[in-house]
């Protein structure tokens, strides 16, 4: 299995000036992500566990209710095989205790912390990148066998080694020059509020 990504060459402009010619850059985006229905997940889980779909649905619904109830009571709740979930707040910070009020809360957050096993599995999952030029032609394919996984809590990444291979679709037997890893300017994570801080 692999995550599929397209790198499409697009004209990017960084100002609204009419004389700004812009620059062409390859922009990556997921090639295909689809949402699996709850019924499909329950059916597959029932097949893998050997129980009936009715029993699996009852367990699924009960687990969801328990997770929701405990998480809203302030607990960090384990999600089997995935990690844990908890709620947090994004709010402004104030110096004077008399200024503390509920209006300082700008948003409520759902925080998911992946398990080590899940992060390891994602780090080992291949990423296949198909490069499309400005004319719509496929010019290159890149496959990364493993990589880094971002920690949503603090924006850090964990490395898992691995290698990248490049293939020129016009001559698949000859690797193209270059390669290496491609980076992103987005650090992801929950972000920060310039006027305050986060309370997790």
Structural topology:
Layout: E1 2-12, E2 23-30, H1 38-49, H2 53-71, E3 77-79, E4 83-92, E5 105-114, H3 116-124, E6 126-132, E7 138-144, E8 149-150, E9 157-158, E10 164-167, E11 196-199
Parallel strand pairs: 1-6
Antiparallel strand pairs: 1-2, 3-4, 4-5, 4-11, 6-7, 7-10, 8-9
What does it look like?
- It is flat, with a radius of gyration of 23 Å.
- The protein has 200 residues and is of the alpha+beta class.
- It is 20% helix and 34% strand.
- Helix 1 crosses helix 2.
- It has a domain of 134 residues.
- Strand 3 and strand 4 form a beta hairpin.
- It contains 3 helices and 11 strands.
- About 18% of the residues have low confidence.
Question: What are the key terms here?
Answer:
single chain, 200 residues, alpha+beta, five-stranded mixed β-sheet
| Cα-atom radius of gyration | 23 Å
Record the strand order, biggest sheet. 2-1-6-7-10
Helix proportion: 10-25%
**Poorly predicted sequence stretches spanning 5 or more consecutive residues:** 158-165, 169-196
Return the string of H and E elements. EEHHEEEHEEEEEE
Count of individual beta strands: 11
Query: What general outline do the C-alpha atoms trace?
Result: flat
**Overall pLDDT level:** 78
Structural class by helix and strand composition: alpha+beta
> What percent of residues are in strands?
25-35%
Main sheet overview: 5 strands, mixed
